Amino acid sequence: WKRMLSDFLNRRILPFYSFSSFLGNDWFSSKAYYVTGDILMPLVALFPDVETGLLWIEGWLLIILAGYFFWQFLYAFDPDGDPKVYLCASLLYSFSGTSALSIGQYMFMRAYVQVPLVFLAVEHFRTRGKAAPFLLVSAVQFLNLYYYAFMVSEFLLLYVPFTYYYHGTKLRSRAFLKLLGRLVVTYLSGLL
């Protein structure tokens, strides 16, 4: 990533294809999982003397964002719940073993931040009927975490019917399929 950024800035070579890359010559496919989603990486690359410190700051920022977005998801899932329980659950989510193992592996930390965002977007779709947040989160998820996004997609097949059933939404099968169709089209639009 740094070499391609340097080549772009110094020699005006576009960073879309690299035949020396170990994953092939398609830059987007090979790098999508590792670096393209790290919004802060170009900023960190500007300060090579303090790069390690900035990456640690980024790691802690991702942990804080993971907890915050998980709290937002819990509140959207059950607005009448106890905020203390949400706080405890968010802290447990933020500092769980998976989070501790992911420190220094920013590709996994980004996934840790975005999973609650995906479910939060589903809850906003369920309660407000607005597809824009789900479209945005889907697009960002596929840009940042190409492979991980497919696992989240499979989990959504279980989560969406669960949340509608849990909240007692009375939908006939035809209306539910129409709603799911709208959600799938929105999700595929985010993929494209």
Q: What does this 3D model show about the protein?
A:
The protein has helices at 2-11, 27-36, 41-45, 51-77, 83-94, 97-102, 106-128, 132-144, 146-166, 173-191. Helix content is 76%, strand content 0%. It has 192 residues and is mostly helical. The radius of gyration is 19 Å and the shape is flat. The mean pLDDT is 77. The protein is built from ten helices and no strands. The longest helix is centred in the middle third of the chain and has 27 residues, at 51-77.
How is this structure best summarized?
The chain is an all-alpha fold and 192 residues long. 76% of the residues lie in helices and 0% in strands.
Name the features.
mainly alpha; 192 residues; 0% strand; 10 helices
Beta content comes to under 5%
Instruction: Quickly count the helices.
Output: 10
Question: Mean pLDDT, as a whole number?
Answer: 77
The SSE order reads HHHHHHHHHH
Largest sheet: none
N-end to C-end Cα span: 24 Å
Task: Walk me through the topology.
Layout lengths: L1 H10 L15 H10 L4 H5 L5 H27 L5 H12 L2 H6 L3 H23 L3 H13 L1 H21 L6 H19 L1
Helix pairs in contact: 4-5, 4-7, 7-8, 7-9, 8-9, 8-10
